[in-house]
From TrEMBL:
<dbReference type="InterPro" id="IPR025966">
    <property type="entry name" value="OppC_N"/>
</dbReference>
<dbReference type="Pfam" id="PF00528">
    <property type="entry name" value="BPD_transp_1"/>
</dbReference>
<keyword id="KW-1003">Cell membrane</keyword>
<dbReference type="InterPro" id="IPR050366">
    <property type="entry name" value="BP-dependent_transpt_permease"/>
</dbReference>
<feature type="transmembrane region" description="Helical">
    <location>
        <begin position="261"/>
        <end position="280"/>
    </location>
</feature>
<feature type="transmembrane region" description="Helical">
    <location>
        <begin position="215"/>
        <end position="241"/>
    </location>
</feature>
<dbReference type="Pfam" id="PF12911">
    <property type="entry name" value="OppC_N"/>
</dbReference>
<feature type="transmembrane region" description="Helical">
    <location>
        <begin position="96"/>
        <end position="121"/>
    </location>
</feature>
<feature type="transmembrane region" description="Helical">
    <location>
        <begin position="133"/>
        <end position="152"/>
    </location>
</feature>
<keyword id="KW-0812">Transmembrane</keyword>
<feature type="domain" description="ABC transmembrane type-1">
    <location>
        <begin position="94"/>
        <end position="284"/>
    </location>
</feature>
<dbReference type="InterPro" id="IPR000515">
    <property type="entry name" value="MetI-like"/>
</dbReference>
<feature type="transmembrane region" description="Helical">
    <location>
        <begin position="158"/>
        <end position="176"/>
    </location>
</feature>
<keyword id="KW-0472">Membrane</keyword>
<protein>
    <submittedName>
        <fullName>ABC transporter permease</fullName>
    </submittedName>
</protein>
<comment type="similarity">
    <text>Belongs to the binding-protein-dependent transport system permease family.</text>
</comment>
<keyword id="KW-0813">Transport</keyword>
Length: 297
């Protein structure tokens, strides 16, 4: 038992793990686009979650006395067709988009990580069957599935997170499976199995900890994809229902007023979606380069 515990400790914390992490952090910080992306994400998180505490607005009731007002000192980004302050709406909608995107991205990554690790470690016909399920799922566009489900039912925030998570885990599962196929043949895993360690211990204590870089990179891309999918569905009117909204819903509502010259109803949410999605993709690229051993000098 003592030798097994010792082996677990060695595999879970391989030599030079701390120095490897510091090197990855330095490499990430030297990637200017990734650092800018991180700054953009931090800005929008503060803007959407702390902003309403500073800039308080009514986003529930209809205020007909101030509909479609252009940007001014009273309303920095103007108002929409029902009198809601557009800056406050941008904060409120951004909170929904970020919560759904982050939650769905993490859920998809967790499901994909467990599925891919199990498939890669099991190998043989189990791996073949599990990955054929993944291939079949990837063949169906995620947006199509989301539209069908949204047309059948009216999802709330929890429903959107579950739907997005259950249709977005396929790509992470393939990435983690590929990593697992390499790791399961390493000496520390083979030694664990030789002294009687269980398959579950091998996966939880060795495979998953050593796949953390792949998992983190996959999560950032999944969050960006989830935010985009929410925007697509909400733009088509099948997302969260009023008075709740997100950036995609704001775009959908603002498009009808854009022909009247009310640009402030579509430019801010459109830019917010572009910037946040780009930021998460930039962070993902930076993390991938930081953890890429082949790129290290």
């Amino acid at each position: 038992m003592s030798s097994l515990t010792s082996l677990d400790g060695l595999a879970a914390t391989p030599p030079r793990a701390a120095s490897g992490t510091r090197l990855a952090v330095r490499r990430f910080l030297h990637n200017r686009l990734a650092v800018v992306g991180l700054g953009v994400v931090v800005f929008f998180v503060l803007f959407c979650f702390v902003g309403p505490l500073v800039y308080s607005t009514d986003q529930t009731h209809t205020l007909l006395q101030q509909v479609n007002q252009s940007p001014s000192g009273a309303h920095w980004l103007g108002t929409d067709a029902v009198g809601h302050d557009e800056l406050g709406r941008l904060m409120y909608g951004g909170k929904v988009s970020l919560i759904v995107g982050l939650s769905a991205g993490v859920l998809a990554t967790v499901i994909g990580t467990l599925w891919g690790a199990a498939a890669g470690y099991a190998g043989g016909w189990i791996d073949a069957v599990m990955m054929r399920v993944v291939d079949a799922g990837i063949a169906i566009p995620a947006l199509f599935i989301l539209l069908v489900v949204s047309a059948i039912t009216t999802p709330d925030l929890t429903g959107l997170v579950l739907i997005l998570g259950l249709i977005s885990w396929l790509v992470p599962s393939r990435l983690v499976r590929a990593e697992t196929l390499t790791l399961k043949n390493r000496d520390f895993v083979l030694t664990l199995r030789a002294i009687g360690g269980s398959h579950g211990r091998a996966i939880v204590r060795h495979i998953l900890p050593n796949s953390v870089s792949t998992v983190i990179v996959a999560a950032t891309f999944q969050i960006a994809d989830a935010i985009l999918l929410v925007a697509y569905v909400s733009y088509l009117g099948l997302g969260v229902q009023p008075p709740a909204t997100d950036w995609g819903g704001m775009l959908s509502t603002g498009m009808t007023a854009a022909y009247s010259g009310h640009w402030w109803l579509i430019v801010p949410p459109g830019l917010a979606i572009i910037l946040v999605v780009w930021a998460f993709n930039a962070i993902g690229d930076g993390l991938r380069d930081a953890f890429d051993v082949r790129g290290r000098a």
